[in-house]
Structure formats: C-alpha cells, structure tokens
C-alpha cells in the first residue's frame, strides 16, 4: 500500500520540477552580456547597412528565428564599409568594432539583438577576436557570450563571409 501512495507523489514532484525547469525564463544579462546589451542599446554614432535604417526581410539562409532585421555599425566598424554602406570585400574589422543586428517579427519592432564586438584580448572572444552576444529585448540572454558564438559561427563562417559578416551575401 505504501508503494501505491509513494508513486503518485514522486510523479507529482517530477512533473512540477519539469514544469519549473521548462518554463524558466532566460537569465537577465549581466557581466559581458550586460555590457554588450548596453553597447547595442545606443543607436548614436552608428552607420546602417546600405546607409538605410529600413528593416529587411530575413534571408532564406538565415538561422535567426525572426522575420526582419537591420544591421548597424559603430564608428570604428563603419571604416570597413564602402560609400554605399556595404562591407568592403576581404576586409577585417578593426579592434573595437561593434556590429548590431536588430531582429524582429514585425517591421519597426525589436525582439532580439545579435551583437558582435571585436575585442581580441577578451576571455569571451573567439579565435578571430569576436565576442558574440545574443540578447532579447527584455534583457534576458538567449545565448551567453561565454559560449563564444558556438551556435552562430558555423553559419557565419560560410563561404563568402567577410570577417563573419554575411550582409553582402544575404542582402546584396
């Protein structure tokens, strides 16, 4: 009889544990992720891809789960853009470059930032010196910078990328 009483309680505990874990919200940005979010939140001094702040439909090759995007470059990164606002072929972005992709499911909205910061000396930088950020509008972290772009750099390393940038390929 004790077994019959024990089993439902264990199943209840397991179910509650699963629900709490499954519904857990992403952690709020802190440390390097908060720094990336703070840098991405400001739009002052940036140059937009193709010199336009218009939202573009996502490329069919994009793994980002959002319908629209727009990309901007800080003053340092914009040195790697041509006069038409496109990334110069075969360029390497200089140290301190910040590239912010704003992702959204509606034109004019914002759901997530995909951020690249060229900071070669950072313990969070990948082998090319980029620190990767993937942070939601609500300040929660979709993928921490500590993962060094593990789920991103596979796509961003595809043939034709320019220092991991794909805008010229996706939106020529």
Walk me through this protein's architecture:
The structure is a single chain. 23% of the residues lie in helices and 20% in strands. The chain is built from 4 helices and 7 strands, in the order ααβββββββαα. Strands 1, 2, 3, 4, 5, 6 and 7 form a 7-stranded antiparallel beta sheet that branches. The termini are far apart.
Order of helices and strands: HHEEEEEEEHH
Low-confidence stretches: 5-25
How confident overall, as mean pLDDT?
87
The percentage helix is 10-25%
CATH architecture: 3-Layer(bba) Sandwich
What is the fold-level CATH name, i.e. the topology?
Answer: Chalcone isomerase
Number of helices: 4
Q: Compute the CA-based radius of gyration.
A: 20 Å
Number of strands: 7
Query: The biggest beta sheet, please?
Result: 7 strands, antiparallel
As a percent range, the share of strand residues is: 15-25%
Task: Indicate the structural class.
Answer: alpha+beta
Q: How widely separated are the two ends?
A: 71 Å
Structural domain count: 1
**Shape descriptor:** globular
CATH class: Alpha Beta
Q: Can you describe this structure in just a few lines?
A:
23% of the residues lie in helices and 20% in strands. It has 172 residues and is α+β, with helices and mostly antiparallel strands.
Could you give the topology of this structure?
Layout: H1 2-22, H2 32-41, E1 47-48, E2 56-57, E3 68-73, E4 98-104, E5 112-118, E6 130-136, E7 141-143, H3 153-156, H4 167-170
């Amino acid at each position: 009889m004790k077994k019959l009483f024990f089993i439902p309680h264990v199943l209840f505990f397991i179910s509650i544990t699963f629900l709490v874990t499954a519904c857990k919200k992403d952690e709020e940005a802190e440390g390097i992720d908060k720094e990336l979010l703070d840098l991405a939140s400001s739009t002052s001094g940036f140059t937009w891809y193709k010199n336009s702040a218009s939202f573009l439909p996502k490329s069919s090759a994009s793994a980002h789960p959002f319908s629209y995007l727009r990309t901007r470059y800080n003053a340092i990164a914009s040195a790697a853009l041509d006069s038409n606002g496109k990334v110069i072929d075969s360029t390497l972005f200089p140290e301190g470059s910040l590239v912010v992709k704003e992702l959204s499911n509606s034109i004019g909205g914002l759901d997530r930032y995909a951020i690249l910061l060229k900071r070669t000396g950072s313990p969070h930088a990948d082998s090319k010196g980029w620190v990767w950020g993937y942070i939601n509008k609500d300040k929660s972290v979709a993928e921490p910078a500590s993962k060094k772009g593990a789920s991103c750099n596979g796509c961003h390393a595809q043939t034709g990328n320019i220092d991991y940038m794909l805008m010229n390929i996706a939106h020529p």
